[in-house]
Amino acid sequence: METVYQAQISYSQFLSETGKPLQPLPDWTGEPDKLVRYYRNMVQLRQLDNKIIALQRTGQMGTYASLLGAEAIEVVLGDLMLSDDVLVPYYRNHGLQMFRGLPLADMLSYWGGDERGSSSPAMGEDFPNAVPIATQALHAAGVATAIKIRGEKRAVVTVCGDGATSKGDFLEALNVAGTWQLPVVFIINNNQWAISVPRSIQCGAPTLAQKAIGAGIRGEQVDGNDVIALHESVTDALKHAREGKGATLIEAISYRLSDHTTADDATRYRSNEELKAAWEREPIKRLQTFLHDREWWDEVQETAWQKEVSQIIQQGLDSYLQLPPQPVEHLIDFLYAELPEALKEQRERLIRNAQPGGSHHE
Ligand SMILES: Cc1ncc(C[n+]2csc(CCOP(=O)(O)OP(=O)(O)O)c2C)c(N)n1
Ligand SMILES: [Mg+2]
């Protein structure tokens, strides 16, 4: 008998849970600029997340999927993706969308149930959020196919959860990305839970990254709470894609520190001990300690950053809250390029009924 194939999955981490270097650090970390920006951006996301949940609790926002614990992934991808690359996001990527130029008010209006938030011109060729699990992986493969056919040097980035990797759509997307050497970077935000289903019963394989092997693409695990490790893996994967060398699957190990959404109560299915342990690994404190050790962080600076980001967020919130209500026909307007006859009629009826004196009993 001979071995016809052998593979390995690497796990990369540069900073310990307490922010100490575990191995020699890349050169760029010798300068504060980028790391300080990452820190500040993560602080902004955390503040924003809190504010949005508060709005939801007071009836000013729809059901919201928190990104508490995923800040490092959002910030690093937002920094490394070029405007020419294409983002095919899922519902926990609104931080990333924001760093790619989506105005805060637009992003908030999406979560407030307003379709205008999904069709902002600022999104360029980026896709709107996918809520149906794993469908975005196929869309990403489709976009990457177009890019490949046109001979462009652009990368497509798509993100999904750990649960999504069990879906056929995800595996089909990996398969075609391997077959056609597509310029895609698949990121798994492995936050350990798919609503109430823990990672341990999601899949029998010890890593999710190894699903790449069956598709013939590169796969690796990275500490998703470590901005330096993420930076190194994502930089390499984007370069590989843009150079036409094919796809990469990165399993970023993180933790969903929040409920699944504002419609969920995670205390019903997971233990306080587990949550407490996860808070010890979260990305912001870890980077803060690292910055502090280099004398790039202090209390005064922190207060100034907190104030600065809170002003940015407040401006976004104000414009969101002042948006005029969306016209009633928006209920129908964003699904089809050309409306089918039956919907045209319904649309007219909706408009008629919304007018003062319009009938509500048709
Ligand atoms: C096709 C489909 N099936 C089921 C759902 C309901 N659903 C919404 S989120 C979710 C869990 C997803 O978990 P995971 O992929 O780990 O992503 P996370 O929310 O943890 O980031 C499910 C099953 C859905 N949105 N789409
Ligand atoms: Mg998950």
Overview of this protein structure:
- Helix 1 packs across helix 2 (71-80) and helix 2 packs parallel to helix 8.
- This protein has a 6-stranded parallel sheet with strand order 1-7-8-4-3-2, with helices on both faces. Strands 5-6 form a two-stranded antiparallel ribbon.
- The chain has helices spanning 32-57, 71-80, 94-99, 104-111, 135-150, 168-179, 211-215, 227-242, 272-279, 283-293, 299-322, 330-333, 341-354; strands at residues 11-12, 86-88, 156-161, 184-190, 193-194, 197-198, 218-223, 248-253.
- Helices cover 44% and strands 9% of the residues.
- With 362 residues, it is of the alpha/beta class.
- Helix 6 links the parallel strand 3 and strand 4.
- It folds into 2 domains: 11-325, 3-Layer(aba) Sandwich (Rossmann fold); 327-362, no CATH class.
- The protein contains 13 helices and 8 strands.
- The mean pLDDT is 96.
- Thiamine diphosphate binds at residues 92, 131-133, 160-164, 189, 191, 193-195, 256, 260.
Protein topology:
Layout: E1 11-12, H1 32-57, H2 71-80, E2 86-88, H3 94-99, H4 104-111, H5 135-150, E3 156-161, H6 168-179, E4 184-190, E5 193-194, E6 197-198, H7 211-215, E7 218-223, H8 227-242, E8 248-253, H9 272-279, H10 283-293, H11 299-322, H12 330-333, H13 341-354
Parallel strand pairs: 1-7, 2-3, 3-4, 4-8, 7-8
Antiparallel strand pairs: 5-6
Bound molecules: thiamine diphosphate and magnesium ion.
